[in-house]
Amino acid sequence: MALAPERDRHGHLVTRRSHVQSLQLPLVPSAKRKGTTMAGSEGPSSTSPGGGRTVSERATRPAKALAACLVAGLAAAGCGGSGSSGSAGSSGGGTITIADVAPFTGADAALGPIYYASCLGAAQAIKNAGGVLGKTVNCKAVDTRGDPADAVPAVRQMFASTSDLGLVIGLTSDEAASVVPVINANKMVMFGMTGESEFDSTHFEYFYRLVAPDLAESYALVAIAQQKGYKKVALAFGNDIGSQTFVKPAISALAKAGIALTENETLDLKASTFRTEASKIVASHPDAIFTEALGPAAASFLSEVKQLNGGKSIPVVGTSACIDPSWFKAVSAAIGAEDLAANFIADNTAIDTSGPAYQTFKAALESQKSKAGNTGNFDTYLTAPGAVHLYDGINLAALAMVAAKSTTPQAYRPFIESIGNGTPGAVEVHSFADGVAALKAGKKVHYTGPGGPTKFDSYHDSTGLFEVDKYDATGNVSVVGHLTSDQIRAFG
Q1: What whole-number distance in Å separates Cα of residue 198 and Cα of residue 471?
Q2: Which of 12, 124, 229, 411 has the most CB atoms around its CB within 10 Å?
Q3: Strand order of the sheet with strand 260-267?
Q4: How many C-beta atoms surround the C-beta of residue 406 within 10 A?
Q5: What SS3 state is found at 123?
Q6: CB atoms within 10 A of CB 268
Q7: CA distances from 352 to 66, 321, 355, 471 (A)
Q8: How many Å apart are CA 246 and CA 216, to the nearest integer?
Q9: Strand, helix or coil at 234?
C-alpha cells in the first residue's frame, strides 16, 4: 500500500499508511462523539478542490471481513470495483464519489463497514434507476481510526485525492467535532451520524443529521428502565468519546425518574479484563445495567458480571450501537445466546418495516451482502441506524442533484431541505427511482425513506421516535416496545 506523508498531533512529519481507501462500485457504464471541543471554522486547504429521527450509532466489535478488505484496499477481492476519476458537476458522464468518513480501525472499527454497506446498497439502487445525471457513483472509505488527531489529516487527504467528491457520510461522535468544520469550509454536503449535542445549536451550512442527539438516547434508556419497573441502575460505558457522552445526561434523567444510580463505571476499551468494575457493579445489586462498551470490551465485561453474580446475568439496557451483528456474535459467545436473548434490550430507531421504502432498502442492501463481510447476522444491518439513515441521506442528496441538474454541492444543497421536508404540491416518493421518474415528469418530490418522515430544522437536524428492540437466540432483532416523544421530553 502506498505511504502518505502527514504530520502527527505535535506537528512533526510522520509516514503511515494512507487513510483514504478508494472502493468504488460502478453504477452506470461510464462515459469516461464527543469529549472534544467543536473546532473553529477554517478555510479551504490549499489542496482542497472546493473552496430526526433516530439515535447515534457507534462501534461494536470490528467487522473483520469488510474492515480488513477496506483497510487493505483489496477492492478487486470483493469490496468494490476498480477506481476511476472524474469531475463532479453538471450532467453528462463522469463520476461521483461518496466518501465514508468513519473508523475502519481502532475500537470503533465496526462503524465504517456498516456505513459502507449502506453506501453500496444505495449505490446499487441508484444504478438500477439509471444513475445520477449519467454519472457513475463510487464509494470510498476514509479511515479516521476514531481519533480526531488522525481524522483531520485523513479528511484533508480525502479532499486532495478525490476530484469527483460529491457527498460525505459517516462522521461519528469520535471525530465529527474536529472534521465537520473542515468539510463545511470546503463546501461539501455531509450526512453525519454523530449524536453530539454541539450540533443542536451550531449551524454548519453543509451539515445534515438524521439522528437524534445523544441526550435524547440517554433519556430513552431511562424511559425503558421506567417501563421495565427498574428501581436501581448501574452504568458501564466505554472510555471512548461516543460512549461517554451518554453518562452525564443519563445520570440526570435517572434522578428525575426517581431511579437510584448504584454504580458508574468507565471501561477502558483497551483492557482485557474488567473484574474490578464488574465486582463493584455486582456488589451494588442493580436491577439493570445501562451500557455501551464497544469492541471486545462488551463480551469480556458482561461475561465477568455473570461469573461474579453466581452464574446469573444482570439485565442489560444497551444503546442502539449494541444492535449490530458483530456485537451479538461476541457477547452471545461470551455469556450464551439464550442468556443474552432473555436479559438484553436496547433502544433503536423506529422503522416501518412494512412500507414500500423499506422493501426497496432491504433489497438494495441484501444485493450487496457478499461485499459486506461475515460479521454475524447480516439481517441486523437492516435495522441499524447507520445503514437506514445514511441510505436515506444518500437518496436525498442524489435526488437533490437531479433536481438541481448538478452534482456540485453548492448547487444541489438547497434542494435537500425542500425534498426532505416537502413543499406544497410535491409528490411523495419512497425511493430514488420513484423520485427520478417524478422529477423527469416535471413534478416536485417529497422523499420519505425507510427511516421515516424527515423534518429538517434550522440546524439541519431531523429527529423522530425510538423503539425498544431485543435479540432472539439466533441474533434476529424484534421490536418489543415504543417510546413516545412525551416520554423522552419528560427528562429534558
Answers
A1: 32
A2: 124
A3: 260-267, 232-238, 288-292, 316-318, 344-349, 466-471, 477-483
A4: 19
A5: helix
A6: 13
A7: 28, 19, 6, 18
A8: 9
A9: strand
pLDDT tens across the length of the chain (492 residues): 333 333 333 333 333 333 444 333 333 222 323 333 444 444 333 333 333 333 334 333 334 334 444 444 433 333 333 333 344 666 667 899 999 999 999 888 888 988 999 999 999 899 889 999 999 899 999 999 999 999 999 999 999 999 999 999 999 999 999 999 999 999 999 999 998 878 988 999 999 999 878 888 999 999 999 999 999 999 999 998 889 989 999 999 999 999 999 999 999 999 999 999 999 999 999 999 999 987 799 999 999 999 999 999 999 999 988 988 889 999 999 999 999 999 999 998 787 788 899 999 999 999 988 886 555 567 778 878 889 999 999 999 999 999 999 999 999 999 999 999 999 999 999 999 999 999 999 999 999 999 888 889 899 988 777 899 999 999 999 999 999 878 888 897
- Nearest residue to 218 via CA among 350, 349, 319, 327: 319
> What residues have CB less than 8 Å from 486, skipping those under 6 apart?
none
Distance of CA 11 to the CA centre of its chain: 30
Q: Give the sheet arrangement for strand 95-102, strand by strand.
A: 20-23, 136-143, 95-102, 165-170, 190-192, 207-209
What is the C-alpha separation between 294 and 299, in angstroms, rounded?
A: 9
Residues 6+ apart with CB under 8 A from 359: none
Phi and psi dihedrals of 174, rounded to 5?
-65, -40
Look at phi and psi of residue 310 and say left if phi exceeds 0, alpha if psi is from -120 to 50, else beta: left
Q: What is the dihedral of CA 261, 198, 144, 369, to 10 degrees?
A: 80
Look at the block and give the residue holding cell 458501564.
236
Of 298, 326, 303, give the one whose Cα is nearest residue 238. Answer: 298
Distant-in-sequence, close-in-space partners of 440: CB < 8 Å, separation ≥ 6:
none
Question: By the 8 A CB rule, do 107 and 59 touch?
Answer: yes
Q: What is the rounded CA–CA span in Å between residue 65 and residue 68?
A: 5
CA 98 to chain centre: 15
Are the C-beta atoms of residues 235 and 490 closer than 8 Å to each other? no
Q: In the chain, how many H helices and how many E strands?
A: 16, 17
Indicate the residue type of 302: L
DSSP 41-73: P-PPPTT-S----B------S--HHHHHHHHHT
Backbone angles phi, psi at 54, to 5 degrees: -140, -170
- 16 neighbors 6 (Cβ within 8 angstroms): yes
Q: Which three cell numbers stand for residue 138?
A: 463510487
How far apart (Å, rounded) are the C-alpha atoms in residues 44 and 42?
7
C-alpha cell at 75: 477492492
Max CA distance (Å), the chain: 67
Q: Which residues lie closer than 8 Å to 193 by C-beta, 6 or more apart?
A: 56, 57, 102, 111, 115, 169, 170, 171, 172, 209, 211, 385, 386, 389, 390
SS3 297: helix
Q: Does the model's pTM come out above 0.90?
A: no
